[in-house]
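User: Hey, quick favor. My workstation is busy. Could you predict this chain's structure for me?
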Amino acid sequence: MSDVMKQVVQEILQGNKKIASNKAVNNSEKSESVPSVKNIKRPNYQRLKKEERLSYTKRNSRAPLKEPKTIGNKRSGSTSPEQFNEKSISALHSMSLVQGNVPKKHHTFTHGNNPKINKARIIGKTKNGGCVWFFPKLPKKLMGSFQRPLNSAAVGVVKMPDCLPSYLLVINEVIQNNQEIKFHLSWNKDAGTPFTAELYDDNVDRLGKLMNDLYQKLNRRSFKQYETYTAVSPSSWLSSQLNISKTVEGIAILEGISYYTSIVLMDSLLKNFETSDFNYEINSNYLLLSGNYHVISKLIAELKTEAARLISSDTDF
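Assistant: No problem, here it is.
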């Protein structure tokens, strides 16, 4: 009995040893199959990519340049240079579209030599309601919109609310200094009639400069309530516009005063200056003197002084 018990105990102990040894073997295999966290190697992708780029550039710099193959030496499966260019261009184009770099298309519209110079425009408006326009090069369909047939490249227009002699003086100066310029005037001495002048010239730059100068002069005049003007030896054209029938040495004008105020001024002038070496004409918005230039220059200065006195005394002007 004791021998049997010993045998049983030995078998049990031997079985436990086998189980323990199997567990130890399994644990060792697991520990070998699962590496520790400390031994895990993490690759540096940025460094690897940098090394790949550097190795690629070195290989390309060392590689000899291949001569382009002729069409006769092409292999059946090779890509021709034309096909390569088309594919490359399409690839680059698609890349630029993906990145948002869409190529810009520049549309150019031609309006003659210079669009800015050839554009019709309003040069300016005066304080008293006048306006100056400039038309450098008109389409044929618009050439019939003016007072005379157009054979010129440029047109300038001046329109003022009243007909004043100073406007005639300005146009007369332009005509005398530029004989090539043609013109058309709408002038009437009656009050309230607008003054219109159209100037035509083949020289676009010259007429453009003249129209700018005209606007500056007319606009400065519009800031003044009244003003005087003189002219020596007026031209026959200017004299006819002012209804001066004979040749005179000079003219003098006082503008910006009413008809009855002109009578007041002439009453004082005729009583204080005994001279007959001049003529005068009273109109609705100006007073005109003509005759000896030195005499009328002195008289017009006296009239301007008297007009200033009347204005300062708050007299109905």
